[in-house]
Every structure is written in structure tokens, then in C-alpha cells.
Amino acid sequence: MSPKIGVFDSGFGGLTVLGALVRRIPHACYTFLGDTARLPYGSKSRRTIAHYAAEAAQFLVNKQGAEYLVIACNTASALALDAIQDAVPVPVLGVVEPGAKAAHAASKTGDVLVIATDATVRSHAYAMACHAQGLRALEKACPLLVPLVEEGWTNHPVTAQVIEVYLSELRAEAKAEGLHYDALVLGCTHYPLLRSLFEKAVTPGVRIIDSAEATAEAAMHLFGQNGENQPDTARVRCFATDSVDKFERLGSRFLGRPVGKVELVDLGG
Amino acid sequence: MSPKIGVFDSGFGGLTVLGALVRRIPHACYTFLGDTARLPYGSKSRRTIAHYAAEAAQFLVNKQGAEYLVIACNTASALALDAIQDAVPVPVLGVVEPGAKAAHAASKTGDVLVIATDATVRSHAYAMACHAQGLRALEKACPLLVPLVEEGWTNHPVTAQVIEVYLSELRAEAKAEGLHYDALVLGCTHYPLLRSLFEKAVTPGVRIIDSAEATAEAAMHLFGQNGENQPDTARVRCFATDSVDKFERLGSRFLGRPVGKVELVDLGG
Questions:
Q1: Cβ A148–B144 below 8 Å, yes or no?
Q2: CB contact under 8 A, A48 and B242
Q3: Nearest CB partner across the interface for A150, out of B39, B44, B143
Q4: Which residues lie below 8 Å from residue A132, measured CB to CB, with a gap of 6+?
Q5: pLDDT means per 10 residues in chain A (269 residues)?
Q6: pTM as predicted
């Protein structure tokens, strides 16, 4: 039997997590929901985010029959994982803890940097998850990176410059706080599309941790679904609460395969 | 008696319009509502935007007693002005038509450029309003400018470069279509904060039209409220549906005076 995995994000950026899941559990049935009518969660309060995310989780489990849930939205994982777990009776995995665990596995110095959206940083969810792994973490909000990715400037000199500005601010802050970091966590689902620019920009020896990949790895273990040696029979069905055109236009670059037709759903918000 | 003017925006960017209103009608009582829980409208569908904007207008008129309404959001003016006018019994003014009329007054060649958010451009509301004035208009979405303004990079070399990229694309498109433009309409409430960068970047002889200023001028006439020679007794009360902190932190730069305490309101979305 194919496992049924629901994947939720505030937008379509979480398709990078879905793509990583498909590569590791290729025999599953996936239902992805992007709450595009109410994005970005990044600028909203914990109360609002918890309310929206619980509604979305209930849609995936109660209406679509998901047996496992992956919260591919860093903001919702950071601010609303408890609310989601209370709302549905299936195993729920967020992206924050797997990212922190992968940082722990990669770092020798025990000091790491985390970049994310403003709300994820303000929640300090990554810092807390890193501390739980015995790491010191310095977090920084990089609000320009999502719009640059959505503009398609994933290999543009302006984007390289913006990354350089953010990284040099981070270097100065790390120095001021006496951190000897050797890992950089990409704490936003859009950032894997900037991975090659980050690889050129970081100090040599600094490992880049992709939360999407780390989460897919963790899902394999938590859900007991090892897709090794399984044929790729993945089925992917995508829903969005608005802006289906944009989702269809940009989504395939994030997923790494065609997203196909995206269905509109009204969560009543 | 002080007139009561309600001003609505999807976020706090419309504070540039409120600031322009206060300068021209300084004896009025203003209530501003930023629907920050549901921004940005720019990426949402016409149906969703009309629903949200009508709710906001009813709050300003029915709950706050506004006698006049200014829709300071380009996207809502472009996509939902009729829906708002149907929802409330007071005069409603959007920002699109005043911008087009100001472009008409400024242009000698009859060809103008309009820059705005993606949804405003996709609605072609400015192109239609310009055509109604006998102008030819070339529109372009500049989705990176709002995040750059919100990051505070209003005088940053990266922002100057992004503006140069957008303007050079516009120049090429204008050339291809045989347009001899002499005016550039800033069709987004955030863009007035980039006015000095645009003034340095445009071809000499091109006039910059600020929709916020044009709208305040039009409001003075439509509402029969000429504030000339009136003392500045303006009172401003601000509401937001979420993210009150961000509103308070960034709002004063947009308004041109302190925004003071921002009150949280729940529109039920």
C-alpha cells in the first residue's frame, strides 16, 4: 500500500520539501496544500498562524485522508506545531527540528548560523531547537530573499549582492558574539533555490544545511517509510487557496518536476 | 465640524496617501485601517480582494463613522472599487483614477509608464484609466520594490540597481512599442519612499507622478474639503488586523509624522 502523506505550506515554497520527500519516499501518494490566499505567514502573529495552519491540517487529514503530515512551512513549524498536533490525530513533522539535528550532525565547533524569514527568526524556534542539540545559534532574518527567488533572480548579480550584505552582517554579529560557526542553516523553503549562490558566498569550510533535505530524511524514519529500492510511483496532487496561476507557473522549479494542475480550495478564511 | 475620513489599505503603505491627505485637509479626523492580517493583496485574486476590501470599508463606515472613504491600496482600487462602493453609502475614492488624471496633466507626448505590484499590473486598471484620459500607457510589475522599502533600503545601492534593471527593461519595451513617454506613474503606495532614487534614475525630462499626492488633491475636490488656510488639527487613529508592532515600527516613515499607538481589530477573516 502506498502511504498517504500530506504536505502543508503557507505558499508553494514548501514544494522544495515535497521534492525532497518524493526523492526519498518515491512510492507514496502526496497531497500538497499551499494556503496562498493567506500568505505570507511570515508577517503574521502566532495566533493567526496557528488558526490558519490547524484549518489546513484538518483539510489534509479529514478531507484528503493523509496518514502522515509534514509541515513544510518554517513559520508554521516554528509557531504552530503544537496547535497542528492538537488539531489532527496523525503523526506531524515540522521542518525546524530536523534542520537543527542536521546542523548538529554537521557542526564540529558547535556554533551555527540560521537564516530565515522575519517571523521565524522572531520566534527563535531554530535557536531553541539548536540549543536542545547543544549548539549555539545566531539567527538572522533575510526578508529580501523570498521575493528575489519569486522574481526568478536565483542566479542574478543583485541576489548575490543581497546575500553578501546579509552574510557580512552575520559575520560581524558572529564576531561580536565570539561565535566560531561552521554551518549555515537555510531556514526557509525558498532558500534551497539559492543554494549555489550561498555556496559561492560562504567562508570556505562552512557547511550549508538545507532544512528541506533534512526534513525528508527525518520523515523517512518517523513515518517508517524507507523508499530505497522502491520504484518512483509517486503521485502528487496540489491544492491552493488562491493564485493557482502563480503556483502553476513557479511551482515546478521548486518541486523539481512538473506540478501539473493545481486545484483551488476554499478553507473558509 | 471636522470631516471624518476613512483611509483603507491592505497594509501600512497607504500611510503615504494618508500623509498627503493630512497635508491638504489638515483639519479632518482620520481613521486608517491596514488589513495586515491578510496582506499582500497584490498576490491574491479579484474575488478574494473584493471580499476583504468590502469588509474593511464597512468597518470604517459602520463602526468608525467615516463620512468619506479613500482606498489607498492600488490593488483594491484596481480590482475592487465597485465592490467597495456597493458595500457602503459614502463617497469612495481610489488611487488609480487620480494617478491617471495627474499623468494626463503632466504628459505632453501622451505616452506614460506605470509601475506597480504584480496584481495591479495584471488588472490593467492603470492602462484603462490612462486610456480613458487619452493616454497610451505601458505598465510593469516591480515586485522587489515593496520588500526593499520594508527592509529600509530606500537609499541603498542594491535598490538603485534594482530600479535600474526595471527601468532599462521598461525602456526596451517602450522602444519596441514605439512609445515616447515623458511621465512615470508610481502606482504603489510604497514607491513614494523611493522617489529620490527614481528621480536620479529616469531619463531627463520624464516627470514622476506620485499617486498618493494626486489622490489627496482629488479628495480635496471630491469631498469639498479645501484645507488651505486651515490650522493643522488633524487627528489620526490607526487600526491594523495584525502585526501591530511592524506597523508602529515602520509606519511613521510612510506617514511623515508619528503614527502613535496602533489598535488591533479583528475583521473575522
A1: yes
A2: yes
A3: B143
A4: A100
A5: 94 96 96 89 81 96 98 91 96 97 98 92 93 98 95 96 97 97 96 96 96 96 88 94 88 93 86
A6: 0.89
